[in-house]
Amino acid sequence: MSLVVATFYHFFSFADYAEWRSPLHSLCEEHGIKGTILLASEGINATIAGSRSAVDTLLTYLRSDPRLWDLTHKESTAPDYPFDRLKVRLKQEIVTLGQPDVNPNEQVGTYVSPQEWNQLIGDPEVTLIDTRNDYEVQIGSFRGAQNPHTHSFRNFPDYVKTHLDPQKHPKVAMFCTGGIRCEKATAFMLKQGFQEVYHLQGGILKYLEEVPELDSLWEGECFVFDQRIAIKTGLVAGSYDLCVACGYPISEEDKASPDYEEGICCPHCSDHLTPEKRARQQAKYQQSKLKKTKDNK
């Protein structure tokens, strides 16, 4: 039986967010749900996996609160849990931009559906920006999109201030994995004086789900923050693995590199691997192999 992987977020005034942690954790544990749920005063952000009935139970519970009656979510499937455990965490922000005056509840850019996205980004006056981090952009993006080369979302405001100008870039379109980063990114850009700011509704995940491969302008795969690592059109599993040392997505080509050592390092981190860290990684790798051997007995 395949499991349902559900992602959702919702910005709203959530003053009592800390009080939700315990009951949410208990509900998820009771129904065998794994994944991560983030709670903050600005809203909720989650990616979870469980049986069909378990995911439906959680969503019904959330939507029973009047503030979350219109909560939307995206779904895909996985043959097994893509997460090792359940985490329900209290945070300052549900997606960290580090700009406390930016509030998506006050203003955001114009949503563009996956079906209308191709037409928008085909407009030569539109500046297309990938708001994700560099390692995500490297394995796939929309044709012609700018890569801000950020290491974290906190770097995005600096990129906007140094590379974009409301006078020179009157139309800006942005996208991210599930849509949440663009909520804050578009709100930030509107505060900076940009007039026409658009974002892909539902993010890359919704686009890959709804737009046929023949019509798709997406190139490569989409990094996801679970054990599937990456997905492709139709939300099927991609071809990447994850380096356990640095967390960078690695391809079959990376594995063929002399700088790749399974469980130790990859071409993206081998140059920075100290003897001490190599020893730690080797010990961890041996422990994981022993655990797998015991589990398979």
Please, could you describe this protein's structure?
There is one protein chain. The chain folds into three domains: 3-90, 2-Layer Sandwich (Alpha-Beta Plaits); 110-220, Oxidized Rhodanese, domain 1, CATH 3.40.250; 241-296, no CATH class. The protein is globular. 29% of the residues lie in helices and 23% in strands. It has helices at 21-30, 52-63, 114-121, 134-137, 156-163, 180-191, 203-210, 252-255, 275-295, and strands spanning 3-11, 34-40, 43-50, 73-78, 86-90, 110-112, 126-130, 140-142, 171-175, 196-200, 218-220, 222-223, 230-231, 241-242, 249-250. The longest helix has 21 residues, at 275-295. It has 297 residues and is α/β, with parallel strands linked by helices. The strands form five sheets. It has a five-stranded mixed beta sheet. A four-stranded parallel beta sheet has the order 6-10-9-7. Strands 8-11 form a two-stranded antiparallel ribbon. The chain has nine helices and 15 strands. GO terms for molecular function: oxidoreductase activity, acting on paired donors, with incorporation or reduction of molecular oxygen. This is tRNA uridine(34) hydroxylase. Belongs to the TrhO family.
Keywords:
9 helices, globular, 29% helix, 5-stranded mixed β-sheet, Alpha-Beta Plaits, alpha/beta, Oxidized Rhodanese, domain 1, 4-stranded parallel β-sheet, 297 residues, 15 strands, 3 domains
Short structural description:
The chain is α/β, with parallel strands linked by helices. It has nine helices and 15 strands.
